[in-house]
Description:
Layout: H1 13-23, H2 28-35, H3 39-46, H4 54-64, E1 76-79, E2 84-87
Antiparallel strand pairs: 1-2
Helix pairs in contact: 2-3
Amino acid sequence: WDADHAPLMDLDPVELLLSLMQSHQLKSKDLAIILGISKGYVSDILRYKKGLSKMVIRKLAAYFKVSHEAFNRPYEITVSENKQVVNA
């Protein structure tokens, strides 16, 4: 999969996740069930408010059949209380 979809590796982990969700016709509520996390946590991830935990990265990689490295890369998240951008 990774070799066939190398351009997707140029996306940050959230963009990649959104792309994979679209191609698999998944909604955030579906992802919450797949990952065993709350819909609120999924929403925070997709809106760059929270980073991906190791457990979430493992489950995403297994479900979408991609390497862990696809999701385990730095990207910026927004911290709402300070309105700052930090690295995840």
